[in-house]
Amino acid sequence: MTAVVETEGLTKFYGKRRGLEDLDLEIRPGEVFGYLGPNGAGKTTTIRLLLDVIRPTRGRMSVLGAEPRDPAVRSRIGYLPGELALEGNEKARDYLAFLGGVRGGVSKDRISALAERLDADLSVPMGKLSKGNKQKVGLIQAFMHEPEFLILDEPTGGLDPLVQQEFLAMVREVRAGGRTVLMSSHVLAEVEDVADRVGIVRGGRLVAVEDVTALREKAVRRMELHFETPVPREAFEDLPGVRDLRVEGASVRCTIDGRPDALIKAAARFTVVHLVSAEPDLEEIFLTYYSENEEQEGRHARAGV
Amino acid sequence: MPALVSKSLRDYRRSLIRWTIGIGAFFTLYLSFYPNISENQEIYGPQALAKFPGAMRDLMGGMEDFTSGIGYLSSVVYQLFGPMLFIACAMILGNRAIAQPEESGTLELTVTLPVDRRRLVFERFVALVLGLLAVTVATFLLAWALSAVADMGVAFGRILAAHTGVFLLALLCGTLSLAVGAATGHKGLAMAVVGVVAVGGYIVETMGKNVDWISWLRWVSPFHYYLDGEPLYQGFPVGNYLVLAGATVVLLLTAILAFDRRDVGV
Ligand SMILES: Nc1ncnc2c1ncn2[C@@H]1O[C@H](COP(=O)(O)OP(=O)(O)O)[C@@H](O)[C@H]1O
Ligand SMILES: [Mg+2]
Predict the structure, then answer these.
(1) pLDDT, tens digit, for every residue of B104-129?
(2) TM spans, by residue (chain B) (predicted)?
């Protein structure tokens, strides 16, 4: 199957300022792709390029097998801008009806159902909506025409936790229906529950693309085992993947790189009374990507002097 | 009606109503002075007006005759204030096509709709034409009715000719603000350009009649193609009006091409 998004050397400079450089990205049909990076990394720049809001300085891209320039392709995309502006006396319901009409027709019931789901009031003039409610209207317009491809730029900003959960459920339903999602965020926690893969951008460059499950497997996790009787240290030394081993009487503490298999098998020889395994902290891995990249940049900078 | 046109007109509705009321009030107020002026020849008659300095009379469009109905209409209503009100209205509508929504951020979602960029500009232009036309038609009917009530003795066709000229002049200025906004995305710049063209154009056209070194500039002043034909006295100056319409088309094409090739919202 052809990729939903394919870019090659995609680059955008704002004058002399780098927005994005040499992006090679592929987003596959049916996946939820998390696009991560701190503020100013180039996430919004990428998304605006894909939607033909801005034009690349150089490079090539295709979206749903077409050029983003082709207006027809945009009716198959749902887009939530990072900075959504809604204003004026117009009621959200009328604005949604207008957007739906231009995109080929969306039933009133569909809009009402989404509004109910997100608990959005559509009868208020848009200029008077709170930030959270504007974001809900933004989500409704992105989802309402059931697009093949959803592009969501920092979608959870301003949403309360309950609505956030509902939103994540909507994203999962989209994926279950075989449709594709690209969502950006500056925090991993927002996307790790739904994303299949994450791409990490920094300073206008894509520094890594990873499967979330692979990322989890790579994750460093802390483990703690408590036994009925004291255990010998030798039984746990030199196990693959085990680090920072501390054996104190009947308890064993360590950190695990990757799979905990060897540790579990070693522990099984004794009577285990209690086992604690902390959730892998993906944020930590995420940060190591950044710091590695920073070191590299530092080296380049020094070499350049 | 295409969705973007009807949506724009819905957005403009309040503004259009306000402008119609405002311009209508201007006509009503000024035409209500007319009976008083026509009865006081010694204050407002040609001899009295001749006392004003020549340059000032030029700037006010000659001020040859206030006391006849047609003279009053042409020098008070259709000379400066009427056109300027329409130009201001058109400029604001022209800005609402691209520059204003771009600055407020609402244009971002609009350009991601499955509508060609060129078509977006064109439909916003159509909304400008229709909105301005609505204000023009309403105020034309009012001006005609008021002039008949005040017994000014100006033919329907002549008022129509003058009003049409005001419409074409304002549409040109509105399209200019649309084009500057489409090319640059800056509302303030668009207003500055229209301001310079309208005010400068008026001064050049009126002063240029008697000042040789600026008279050649009259040919580039949009006001020239409205005022020079004296539509209230002579009827439709067809050639001149075609120049206004042609310039509008050129500006529209420029706007379409410029907007099609640039980044939005940067
Ligand atoms: N309109 C613009 N003009 C100049 N620089 C810009 C503009 N938009 C973004 N940038 C720059 O491009 C880089 C990437 O920005 P952006 O794509 O908005 O990042 P993100 O969405 O990841 O926070 C930043 O350094 C930002 O300052
Ligand atoms: Mg952003």
Answers:
(1) 999 999 999 999 999 999 999 999 99
(2) 16-34, 70-93, 125-147, 159-181, 188-204, 241-259
**CB-CB neighbors (< 8 A) of B265 in chain A:** 48, 53-54
pLDDT one-digit tens code per residue, B61-74: 766 777 788 888 88
Q: Tell me the pTM.
A: 0.88
- Taking alpha carbons only, the member of B158, B163, B187, B171 closest to residue B251 is B171
Ligand 1 pocket test: pick from A13, A23, A45, A186 the residue with the most ligand atoms within 8 Å of its Cβ. Answer: A45
The answer, yes or no, to whether ipTM is higher than 0.85 is yes
Find which of B5, B8, B98, B113 to mutate to test the A interface (most A CBs within 10 Å of its CB).
B113
Do residue A272 and residue A125 come from a single domain? no
User: A142 is in which domain, residue-wise?
Assistant: 5-212
Please tell me if the CB atom of residue A45 comes closer than 6 angstroms to any atom of ligand 1: yes
Residue B152 included in any domain: yes
Dihedral of alpha carbons A37, A38, A41, A45, sign: positive
Give A72 to chain B, closest Cα distance, Å. 5
| DSSP category for residue B221 | -
Best probe residue, ligand 1, of A12, A17, A152 (max atoms within 8 Å of C-beta)? A17
